[in-house]
Amino acid sequence: MNKKKLVAALASVAVVATLFAGCASKTTEGDKAPAAGDTKKIKVGLVTDQGGVNDGSFNESAVRGIEQAAKDLGIQKLNPIESKQQDAYEPNLKTMSNQADLIVGCGFMMEDAMKNVSSQVTDKKFLLVDAVVENPNVSSITFKEHEGSFLAGVIAGKMTKTNKIGFVGGKEGDVIGRFEAGFVAGVMSVNEEAGKLLMSKDEKTPGQNVKYIDSFDDQGKGFEAAKLLYGSGVDIVYHAAGGAGLGVFKAAKDMDKFAIGVDSDQAVTAKDYKDVILFSMEKKVDVAVIDTIKDIQADKFAGGKLKVLGIKEGAVGIAPTVHPDVSKDAMDLSKKAEQEIKDGKIVVPGTRAELLNFKAVEIK
């Protein structure tokens, strides 16, 4: 090979080497982890129980949490899927898992469906509110509803003028049982006469002024149960019936009585009935949803674990909107009871069995 040909060959090799070096450099840049600001948005979707997104109560609180997270945490909110029938829970959870990174399921009746779907879709994260699934990709959250309901019972027991107070529950079970037991214990602690009509005679049978309607969305059933109670002389009804509780408010309005809201600040979420809602017992599902999203973003998702949230955690209590007719004395007594629960001086019963063994406390 002459000198000119040798120089040309070496130059060609140099050019090719430079091209490969450039390609390698670009590939290395592409393999770098994205900057924090480039991280893809977490997609979060809700599957409701029977009450639907407009129940003004439980599900609506979860919706608020996701909406707030979209504003404050930069997540992507997906359209919720409503479950009108129990057999729709599993297919709805599967559908949402095809889109979302975090699937939020609301309601204790969703337990089996959540267990099945999360076992099949192991690459997604799930949040279950009001029940427990121990799969490693499921975070479960339950609340001490009995603690917040105790405060509601204290106020109702002080406010009643007829010494007759009522309770309307959705479906009987552990969760609504906590609302019932705590509320009755609160009433009994300040007004034993009113409490007697709410008190269960045994562990299985509700008290005379306790009505279950086997629904979280049938407003007609809520209306009829409350109408029956008001017609018997009851002047205040506390409901734990989700969307069906709007029927309780309608009965209160029609009969010029009072009601107590639940889960959300219902004088705000059910504005048409604000004049008959004394106050609401707030259960902060929205905050639990936001905290779970924060945990995911911080890579601290509590899969396979249960969180139980009560008064000490600021998760249950009396909502901000209080009717002008609620006396300062009643509110002050409720605040004292809240502090005593925080301090462990009052242990609120969460079942009828515990309620039967509960000794009414003197709130100081």
From TrEMBL:
Cellular compartment(s): Cell membrane
Domain ABC transporter substrate-binding protein PnrA-like, residue spans: 43-350
Key words of the record: Cell membrane, Lipoprotein, Membrane, Signal
Extent of the signal sequence: 1-21
Membrane topology reported for the UniProt record: Lipid-anchor
Entry's Gene Ontology cellular component terms: plasma membrane
Origin superkingdom: Bacteria
InterPro entries in the cross-refs: BMP_lipoprotein, Peripla_BP_I, PnrA-like
Pfam families the record matches: Bmp (PF02608)
SUPFAM superfamilies given in the database record: Periplasmic binding protein-like I (SSF53822)
Main location: membrane
Similarity comment: Belongs to the BMP lipoprotein family.
The protein's name in its UniProt record: Nucleoside-binding protein
